[in-house]
Amino acid sequence: MIKIIVLLSALACVYCEVTCPPVDPTLPIYLPDESYCGTFYECADGRAWKFECAPGTYFDTEKNVCNYDVDCGNRRMSTFVPTSPQPPTTPE
């Protein structure tokens, strides 16, 4: 069941700027997203697979896991883009 969830949450990163080695090393390679702290990539078969951390956690570049209390530096904490509030509509 967990494998299915992981497979569904992984997205192949075809046009991303992450470069992975063509051959997998013994240990997995995890790379942070350059813009968003809650996003990271796992290299497999020369491709970067994009993952999102669970809500409230961020990719810890020192431990290579999603964690609490992470120093995100200049990376954004969220991929959520707020919209301007819209005035309520009144029925005609």
TrEMBL record:
PROSITE patterns found in the cross-reference section: CHIT_BIND_II
Lineage of the organism: Eukaryota, Metazoa, Ecdysozoa, Arthropoda, Hexapoda
Protein name: Chitin-binding type-2 domain-containing protein
UniProt keyword Signal, yes or no: yes
Keywords: Signal
Leader sequence residues: 1-16
GO cellular component, one term: extracellular region
GO molecular function terms noted in the UniProt entry: chitin binding
Stretches assigned to the Chitin-binding type-2 domain: 17-74
SMART domains: ChtBD2
Signal recorded as keyword: yes
